[in-house]
Design brief:
This protein is of the alpha/beta class. The chain is built from 24 helices and 17 strands. The longest helix has 23 residues, at 405-427. It starts with 16 loop residues before the first helix and ends with a helix.
């Protein structure tokens, strides 16, 4: 047997990045490389089309090894190869009985832990009977230990962790769960879960707290101190950045906010008497991920690195430097229209969480914005995780992103930029200060406006909404709970939340808005549907297609895609050879506006005749698909046009 090694690349010449770039310049034919091939993120980071070993200095091993500081590559040397990540699903059905059925169904079919989302009444420190306008909104109607017991009936609380989401009432909710553990004879050392006190996150998300920020943070620290002393498998504190991300924050803003919040909580807990190690172990960080896999992976890796450095600088041990991390689908990434596409989006968010090394992952149901998720949507949500873990084996490779020149480079850039933003927040007095004065909210709002411009022009396309909309597809709608019937069932004597909860208005600020990437276009679709309900048909635009199908198909398809993104149905035909024929068809269509579709050479000889003829026939507005300035044409639309703004103006013209 020969000892000669086979070198697959031996017969190919070495090629440098510059050689590759020179070859690409020939293909680009003079177009700027930076404009055509480099993508600039909202954080100001340039994403190159190709990365080489020069983009990441692996010799210094800045990412370390899995299971060791700086924990960029994960908290465990073995990754998640043995037990996988925690499949943690959220439950928010207002009806306690229905919520219990769904919880048991999830646990029997692969979910390993639960998030219980309390309704707005409970979050206000009241019961549904006291605040019927808030009862069942946004969560389960849990107002007492008895309610919590009903929701968790049949759940083995020493096997399935329970994570509570009760907003400003986290201490009261924690007391309910503690009492339930006692009733169920669950020993303190076997209790599993999270109380998730996050006063700064609640303050930013809702714009208010029932007490002063200082008192809320002190209560959080006291809860953490008691939890650390009693429950070894329970955490009291959560740093949840989903509200900031939902308002439009970038990845580095998200990271900086998480670090600044974590530092504020670390200070409060150590002031309450906890050691740095014990305080750090009480915090779980929760990050929302959009549908971009690579940015999600890099963000989670950068988060672990940054937090490890902070705990180290604070005097924490290497063990305490390991971040406890939960990753979830960002609600802003999901659409209400054509929600089936959300199945792809949540798969991407789960993939990023798994490869990024999250300890627990939550996948939102694809119908999240359509109402209370049905059984099928919840099944798809949990099976997305199960398939990626048990069939795609994403947990069987330890830090698969490690050593990727692109991911390592992006991780480092995120960490560096986030650290600068973190220092800015600290320089302004910390998280409580920048939330209270509204400066953080204003900064995020600026980022959202920049994002809106790209959404409006479809530079950031939204499949099924701004691109390839199906306006004739039936809307996915979920039946709303019968709130009045549920309120009538409330036991008036069960007032644990009202008794233990903190009520009032101790602090106010500007609340973060909850945005969705698709909201602008979906607002137009809703208006178009309302128009259809009133008139018996959707608003229309007549496609004045020129000549043979081969000539006009490309731009007719573009125009259909363009206008139907706003719910304006584009009428279709095989084309017209004369303006008179087009005018006659326009009159029969019942449309009030039209769009010219053809090839450039046709526009030169036919556009003016078509446009002026259609105007004379009563067209309120004549568009042209492509480029050109011709008599009778009011507006040309093409690649890079402000689609959202154009459609908003069109709705006004049509009285939608």
């Amino acid at each position: 047997m020969s000892d000669e090694r086979l070198a697959l690349a031996a017969e190919f010449p070495q090629t440098s990045f510059e050689d590759w770039k020179d070859s690409l310049d020939k293909i680009l034919k003079g177009a700027p490389f930076e404009k055509k091939m480099v993508v600039k993120t909202y954080d100001g980071i340039d994403i190159q089309p190709l990365y080489t070993k020069d983009d990441w200095n692996a010799d210094k091993n800045p990412s370390g090894f899995p299971g060791s500081a700086p924990f960029t590559r994960g908290n465990s040397a073995g990754g998640r190869t043995l037990d996988g990540w925690d499949i943690r699903q959220v439950h928010a059905n207002a009806d306690k009985s229905a919520a219990n059925d769904q919880i048991l169904d999830d646990l029997e079919r692969g979910v390993t832990s639960l998030i219980l989302q309390f309704d707005e009444a409970a979050r206000a420190g009241k019961t549904g009977a006291d605040a019927p306008d808030l009862a069942g909104r946004g969560g389960i109607m849990i107002y007492s230990k008895e309610d919590l017991a009903d929701v968790l009936e049949g759940v083995l609380l020493d096997l399935a962790g329970v994570s509570l989401e009760a907003g400003a009432q986290s201490t009261a909710a924690a007391q309910m769960l503690i009492e339930l553990w006692a009733d169920k004879n669950i020993p303190a050392e076997k209790a599993m879960g999270a109380f998730n006190a996050d006063p700064l996150g609640v303050f930013a998300a809702t714009g208010s707290l029932p007490q002063s920020v200082e008192d809320a943070v002190k209560d959080m620290a006291a809860l953490a101190k008691d939890t650390a002393a009693t429950y070894p498998h329970v955490t009291a504190v959560k740093v949840d950045t989903s509200a900031y991300y939902g308002a439009g924050a970038t990845e580095t803003q998200d990271l900086a906010i998480a670090m600044a919040t974590g530092v504020a909580y670390l200070r409060a807990m150590t002031e309450a008497g906890l050691s740095v190690d014990d305080a750090a172990k009480q915090i779980v960080f929760s990050f929302a991920n959009g549908a971009d896999i690579f940015t999600g992976i890099a963000k989670l890796r950068a988060a672990r690195f940054l937090w490890g450095q902070i705990v180290k600088a604070s005097g924490g041990s290497e063990e305490a430097q390991a971040m406890q991390m939960h990753a979830a689908t960002a609600a802003r990434a999901l659409s209400k229209r054509d929600p089936w596409v959300n199945m792809l989006r949540v798969t991407a968010t789960c993939f990023a969480g798994a490869i990024g090394g999250a300890d627990a992952i939550t996948v939102l149901p694809f119908d999240h914005h359509c109402g209370v998720a049905d059984d099928f949507a919840r099944r798809i949500a949990r099976n997305t995780q199960i398939v990626l873990q048990e069939e795609s084996y994403l947990n069987k490779v330890i830090d698969p992103a490690g050593g990727s020149w692109f991911i390592e480079n992006l991780t480092e850039q995120y960490a560096a930029k986030a650290w600068s933003l973190f220092q800015e927040i600290e320089g302004k007095g910390g998280m409580a200060a920048v939330i209270a004065d509204g400066s953080l909210q204003a900064q995020i709002a600026e980022t959202w406006q920049a994002r809106l411009k790209n959404i409006a022009t479809r530079k950031d396309p939204i499949t099924g909404v701004s691109e390839y909309p199906n306006i004739l597809e039936a809307k996915v709608e979920r039946k709303a709970p019968d709130y009045q019937t549920l309120i009538a069932k409330i036991n008036a004597s069960d007032k644990t939340m009202a008794t233990l909860g903190v009520q009032g208005s101790g602090a106010t600020t500007t609340a973060l808005p909850a945005h969705r990437l698709a909201e602008g276009f979906e607002k137009l679709r809703d208006a178009a549907d309302a128009y259809a309900d009133k008139n018996g048909h959707l608003p229309k635009i007549f496609s004045a297609n020129m000549g043979a199908i081969a000539k006009h198909t490309a731009r007719a398809s573009f125009a259909k895609n363009f206008f139907e993104a706003g719910g304006v149905q584009a009428t279709q035909n095989n084309g017209f050879t004369s303006a008179d024929d087009a005018v006659a068809a326009f009159k029969e269509s019942g449309a009030e506006v039209c769009v010219l579709c053809g090839a450039d050479d046709q526009y030169e000889t036919m556009a003016a005749d078509f446009a002026t003829g259609l105007k004379a026939a009563g067209a309120k507005k004549v568009y042209l698909a492509g480029r050109g300035d011709f008599d009778g044409v009011d507006q040309a639309v093409g690649m890079g046009s402000d689609v959202l703004g154009t459609l908003q103006d069109l709705h006004t013209v049509l009285g939608v």
